[in-house]
Amino acid sequence: xxxxPVESRPARAxxxxxxxxxxGPVAGLVLLCIAGTLLNAEFxxxxxxxxxxxxxxxxxxxxxxxxxxxxxxxxDLSVGSMAALxxxxxxxxxxxxxxxxxxxxxxxAIGMLLALVLGAAFGxxxxxxxxxxxxxxxxxxxGTLGIFRAYLTYFANGGAITLDNALADVYxxxxxxxxxxxxxxxxxxxxxxxxxxFILNRTAYGRYVQAIGSNExxxxxxxxxxxxxxxxxxMLLGLCVGIATLLYVPRLGSASPTTGLLWxxxxxxxxxxxxxxxxGGSGSIxxxxxGAILLSVINNILNLTSIISVYLNAxxxxxxxxxxxxxxxxxx
Length: 332
Known about the structure:
Distance between the termini: 36 Å
CATH topology: ABC transporter involved in vitamin B12 uptake, BtuC
Shape: globular
Structural class: mainly alpha
Largest sheet: 2 strands, antiparallel
């Protein structure tokens, strides 16, 4: 038997390391769950598990869309402010429509549809500014971060926009309802994640997203319509923000200048903790889902055990981002 080529050994070692790296978030989640159970017996209860998954749903859905954007080599810092503005506009429109439309269920349906339309429209605006305007994604979304939240504050007159009580009662099951004992937001999160995984791994569009993130110039030479793919990617993220928002509105029934605060930090953290390369080109929806759940589990453990102040939860997420970015140095 001829000896194994020397050059194949490093390649095999790299492939093995890649597989082990992919299991990192899962291993971290398992270890966290074990630690949470040891620290507080309430952590492992079914009610707490469903609570964690329900709270994860909002950020997880946004993180699925953010995964596409980051894999393509982009970023969106405005998703939290976008969600806040969408929530405010939806509530204002539903309150106004309640005076002219007799059916509260129809009013709620119109509001939910509006959330999706606004999300896609805001994403389209981002995509056009980035591709046709030739502005860096960081700058565009940093600008709209302030614009979206400022307009919500203006519409709310510095306070809160509250949903009409009759509409709130009809809308409440969207968040508080369940199917087979599992809350609706968790089902929606699962469906969005499955759809995202299928699009990323089983469609030409998904391959184009990864190709653009790996090397945009080569993708152009390969006749990939880079601008169209980028525009659709930001629209997809906006649509995910709209879905998350329409699930979030019935939770509190109001929107204020603090709605969606730091959601962009949590979504980006979920994506990179899940193994997606910050420089673009590679990543997975499954890893993003695990990353989102992992961050929620960290927050849940901190809340249950009071190891540190709950006001430092965002600081923990910030440290996680920095550590994972450090570990990803040079990874493409």
